[in-house]
Fold:
Amino acid sequence: VYCLTRKVVKLVIRAGKPLYICTKSTLVTRDLDLLGNYSNCWVGISISSLSSKYAQIIEQGAPKPSERINCAE
Structure:
């Protein structure tokens, strides 16, 4: 595992720059220890449909909508 996103997040935080993350992945929760303590950060998780059936067709390989919703809690 390369953890490239985590490395980039650390660099952006160290530089004090704004950080915007828009993703379909639930992996963003892996970096909550960094993101939760950085006030200049926004995270968005896109969900195209609440139906797992339709989401599987239009977002192949992405986590199920229910997993993304749970990720936001």
In short: The CA atoms of residues 27 and 71 lie 9 Å apart. The first strand starts at residue 19 and ends at 23.
